């Protein structure tokens, strides 16, 4: 039992209490087996059903077409950065016989980190744009497509990568770039770690979606992948010998997409408890009315909080351009010096926690993921208003 939290941490994040209550029971005794879910074989009938259920519920929630496959891997978003670079460059080699260039659209520190990992693995990369170059050396905007679409058109890209919601900098793509989605030769690869299931998305337009679990969908430890099946076939066409000769990285076996898919996400021991929590979150969301209903609620929450912050432009500094403000991570700083600690202390007295900004940017960040209710966000918005009125 617990009082409903109002925790705005960026991740691991607050989860629905009823999901945790069910998970706690299942950790001790699952399906009346007399054993907890973490104590059964990952190849047992009960574990296989968890995997299949999670996939089916996610497909229903996201309207995933038959052209795409869902799988789960350990290692978090960061392992995703490496596995994307190695698997997708192999896919391009398998498909074309050539080494392609991986194009990165850099809008914050997570897309930058992903780019760095591809470079570290010696995958040829090109930065199509870095939004810092358009905004006085700071993240906080997305340049208009007309500025960089030419590069996408002229390049030989094995894939084009973006982070749909930059968790640290609070920058979210309002829509997918058309110059990428309208080009059938380019696979769009997107990191949705911090906005998966927060809004409806057209899955068919993505070559690959990855999302770490610990924000909107569960506990740390598993990463969700949704991949176009044709990419799996292309990866299989490139032999290890050819990949090696081309100077591309060989994917470690536990992260080799076709191997994981062939084994229904259980090539090696899948953390089945973590996956079960994810599935309970999926079921919870289905009961709530699905992604459409959640999106409606999230838009309302973001509107409440941004409106309250925008009401005091001389007090709160909003570093992100309105056109790409995140609906999940609301980033702001105080214009007056010396009040940061007071803000956090008074918020905590109202049980509003997890508001400290990322260490690289300072200030504040309110993460208003799916599990945060409209009431919780309203409570924070009221505090934001009162704090400004008292301290301006
Ligand atoms: N991508 C995004 C958008 C993230 O927010 C994070 C973590 N906060 C990561 C990737 C990295 O995830 P992990 O810590 O699971 O490796």
Automatic annotation (TrEMBL):
Its EC number is 2.6.1.52. GO terms for molecular function: O-phospho-L-serine:2-oxoglutarate aminotransferase activity; pyridoxal phosphate binding. The keyword Transmembrane helix does not apply. GO terms for cellular component: cytoplasm. GO terms for biological process: L-serine biosynthetic process. It comes from the Eukaryota. Residues 8-380 form the Aminotransferase class V domain. Its cofactor is pyridoxal 5'-phosphate. InterPro entries: Aminotrans_V_dom, Aminotrans_V_PyrdxlP_BS, Pser_aminoTfrase, PyrdxlP-dep_Trfase, PyrdxlP-dep_Trfase_major, PyrdxlP-dep_Trfase_small. Coiled coil: none annotated. The keyword Transferase applies. It catalyses: O-phospho-L-serine + 2-oxoglutarate = 3-phosphooxypyruvate + L-glutamate; 4-(phosphooxy)-L-threonine + 2-oxoglutarate = (R)-3-hydroxy-2-oxo-4-phosphooxybutanoate + L-glutamate. This is Phosphoserine aminotransferase. It comes from Zygotorulaspora mrakii. The lineage of its organism: Eukaryota, Fungi, Dikarya, Ascomycota, Saccharomycotina.
